[in-house]
UniProtKB/TrEMBL annotation:
SMART domains: HTH_LACI. The keyword DNA-binding applies. This is LacI family transcriptional regulator. Gene3D superfamilies: 3.40.50.2300, lambda repressor-like DNA-binding domains (1.10.260.40).
Length: 341
C-alpha cells in the first residue's frame, strides 16, 4: 500500500489513481448502480491497490444506513447459548445477513438494565432494523422501536404488538397433530407440559392440545396440564407434579423437546417405561430428539428457515425505506414419529 502522505489513503487519492472524479469513487464505494461496470472495476482496482477503507461514519451520513442489524433476544444467556432452537434460528439469520454484507449485533434484553441500555441504543443512528426473538407480553421494546420508525420483525405472532411484521410457525396445528397422534394410539390420560403463557407460542400450543382433545370428544382436564418455561429443568419439575397429581397418565405432550427430555428422565426415575407405560411427544425436532433413548417423537419446526425468512423480511423493509406494509408469514410444522410414542 502506498500513497502521497504515507497515511491512510483518501478518497481523492483513489480518484486520482483510477482517473475518475471524487464523486464517482463515492458512488462506487457506496454501491450506487449509476456507474458503468468498466468504471466500477477501475475504481475497485484502485481501492485494492491503495488499501483504501471507506469512512463508515461518513458513509452513514450519505446513505442514512448504518449497515448494522440488531438481533434482540429476551431470554437468559444460558438458554440462548444452550438451547438448539436459538442456535438454529440464529444460523438462518446470519446466513442472510452475511450474504447481504450487513453486520449483525446481538443484544440481550433480559434484565431491566439491559432493556434500558437497548432503549437508548436501538435508534436509526445505530442500526437499520431489528429482529426480535422470544418477545413476552411484558416486553415494551417492540412498541418503542416501532415508534422510532425502525423496521422490526418479530419471531412469532405479535400478540399485543399490533401492526408489526412477523414470521411464525403453525404452533397450534403442530400441537394438535401431536395430541391427535397420542389419542389415536389409544392413550387415555394425555397430559400437557405447556410452554410459558406470557408467550404466544406457549398459548398456541396449549390451544392445539385443547383442540385435539375436543375433536376426539374428550374433556379438557386442568389436572392434566402443567406449565413450564421450555427448559429441561421445568419439564422435569412439571412431570413430577403431574405424576403426583395424576398417576394414571399414559401419554405426555411436552411443548418443547427439552421439556420432553426432562419429563423422560423423571418417568425413568419413577420406573415407568417409554412408550410402553407412557407415550411421549415433544416439539422442535432439534438435534437431541433423534439421539435420545428412546428417540423422541416430536413436531418439526424449521428453525433455520424461520431465521432466514425473518432476516429476508427485514432487509426488504429496510430497502423500502420503512414504508412497506407489515408482512406476516406462518411456516408449516409437521409431526416426526419415532420410538417414544
Amino acid at each position: 500500500m502506498s500513497n502521497s502522505t504515507g497515511g491512510q489513503p483518501t478518497l481523492e487519492e483513489v480518484a486520482a489513481r483510477a482517473g475518475v472524479g471524487r464523486g464517482t469513487v463515492s458512488r462506487v464505494v457506496n454501491g450506487s448502480p449509476q456507474v458503468s461496470e468498466r468504471t466500477r472495476v477501475r475504481v475497485m482496482r484502485a481501492v485494492d491497490e491503495l488499501g483504501y477503507v471507506p469512512n463508515m461514519a461518513a458513509r452513514a451520513l450519505v446513505t442514512r444506513r448504518t449497515g448494522a442489524i440488531a438481533l434482540v433476544i429476551s431470554e437468559p444467556e444460558e438458554r440462548i447459548f444452550g438451547e438448539p432452537f436459538f442456535a438454529g434460528v440464529v444460523r438462518g439469520i446470519t446466513t442472510v445477513v452475511g450474504d447481504a454484507s450487513r453486520q449483525l449485533v446481538l443484544a440481550l434484553a433480559q434484565t431491566r438494565e439491559q432493556v434500558d441500555r437497548l432503549d437508548t441504543y436501538l435508534t436509526p443512528q445505530h442500526v437499520d432494523g431489528v429482529l426480535m426473538l422470544s418477545a413476552h407480553d411484558s416486553d415494551t421494546l417492540p412498541s418503542r422501536i416501532q415508534g422510532r420508525g425502525l423496521p422490526i420483525v418479530l419471531c412469532g405472532r405479535p400478540g399485543q404488538f399490533a401492526g408489526m411484521s412477523y414470521v411464525d410457525v403453525d404452533n397450534t396445528g403442530g400441537a394438535r397433530d401431536a395430541v391427535t397422534h397420542l389419542v389415536s394410539g389409544g392413550r387415555g390420560a394425555v397430559a400437557l407440559i405447556a410452554g410459558p403463557q406470557d408467550m404466544i407460542a406457549g398459548r398456541d400450543r396449549l390451544d392445539g392440545y385443547r383442540d385435539a382433545l375436543r375433536a376426539a370428544g374428550r374433556e379438557v382436564e386442568d389436572s392434566l396440564v402443567e406449565v413450564g418455561d421450555f427448559s429441561e429443568a421445568s419439564g422435569a419439575a412439571a412431570m413430577r407434579t403431574l405424576l403426583d397429581r395424576r398417576p394414571d397418565i399414559d401419554a405426555v405432550f411436552a411443548a418443547s423437546d427439552l421439556m420432553a427430555l426432562g419429563a423422560l428422565r423423571v418417568l425413568r426415575e419413577a420406573g415407568l417405561k417409554v412408550p410402553t407405560d407412557v407415550a411421549l411427544v415433544g416439539f422442535d425436532d432439534g438435534p437431541l430428539a433423534a439421539v435420545s433413548d428412546p428417540p423422541l417423537t416430536t413436531v418439526h419446526q424449521p428453525m433455520e428457515q424461520l431465521g432466514r425468512e425473518m432476516a429476508t423480511m427485514l432487509l426488504a423493509q429496510i430497502s423500502s425505506g420503512g414504508v412497506a406494509a407489515p408482512e406476516h408469514l406462518v411456516l408449516d410444522a409437521s409431526l416426526v414419529e419415532r420410538a417414544s410414542s
